[in-house]
Amino acid sequence: MSITPLSISVRLNSTSSLLLERSRIISLNLKPNPSSLSQITRNLISIRSDLDQLELENDGLLVGQSKKGKLIDDGDKENEEIEELKRRYDQLLDILGEDEVGRGKVKDLIREEKIVSTPPIPQPTPSPKPPPSPIRTPGFNEVPKLSVEPPTPGINRDRNQDLKPFRDYPDDASDEERDAGMSPGDMLDHQQIMMNDQDERLNLLSNSIGRQNHLSVQIGSELDIHHQLLEDTDQAMDRTANSLNRARRRLDKVANDAKQHGSTITIVVLIFILLILIIVFKT
């Protein structure tokens, strides 16, 4: 597929949208997606390569060569378009270099200015003029008849269509081909719509992050309450354990006293039972 200023302009527009989205995310103190930076870098490398190739092709036009039926004036016009594309490319590099990570990428993406030395155009050597011949008026029969043929229609468009890859479904064209058929005004409107959509998505993302932050604060408060309840439960269990220990010590003391004075208690109980029996039998 041939490289044209229009195709490079379309890719510059799409890369500009990615850079603006990345700058907006960085301005919100959010971390941009690494895949977006990789896509931007690949686009800029491809654009730089195409700009260099297009500039070399245009240099051939400026020194008087012809390419695909173009004239030298067409080369001058295309040179102005290339300079405009180079200026837009440098602006994208300035946007990318606003943060530290982007500055590291910009060092490898800066274009090298090329100085093209145009070979001197050979001047034709003047040939000696022949001596003037006497003026003779041609007769009626000597005047040549000229036939003008109608111009043939251009075939550049059909040829370009034949060079395009075959598609089973012509409607499923790529974004670049769709943008190539748009006017600059429509393209700007499309880019504005895309930027507005990205702004809405970023606002939704910001609101979602705010809600998640609020939920995390509430969860932290609930965790503090549960921690306080667990501490109160531990204190209550400690008090219950102390009460059980005191009761166990008292039971142990009673058991020890019963073991030490068991015989005396038995004699006292037997005497008490005997007295009761004597009283009962006497009555």
TrEMBL record:
Keyword entries, A-Z: Coiled coil, Membrane, Transmembrane, Transmembrane helix, Transport
Recorded topology in the membrane: Single-pass membrane protein
Coiled-coil region: 37-95, 230-257
SMART domains per UniProt: t_SNARE
Localization, UniProt: Membrane
Comp. bias intervals (Basic and acidic residues): 156-170
Primary location recorded for the protein, binned into one broad class: membrane
CDD domains referenced in this protein's UniProt entry, alphabetically: SNARE_SYN8
Pro residues bias: start-end ranges: 119-135
One GO CC annotation: membrane
Keyword Coiled coil applies: yes
Transmembrane annotation, as ranges: 262-281
Residue ranges, annotated region (Disordered): 112-182
InterPro entries for the chain: T_SNARE_dom
Chain ranges of the T-SNARE coiled-coil homology domain: 192-254
PANTHER family named among the record's database cross-references: GOLGI SNARE BET1-RELATED (PTHR12791)
Name recorded for this polypeptide: t-SNARE coiled-coil homology domain-containing protein
Species, as recorded: Kwoniella pini CBS 10737
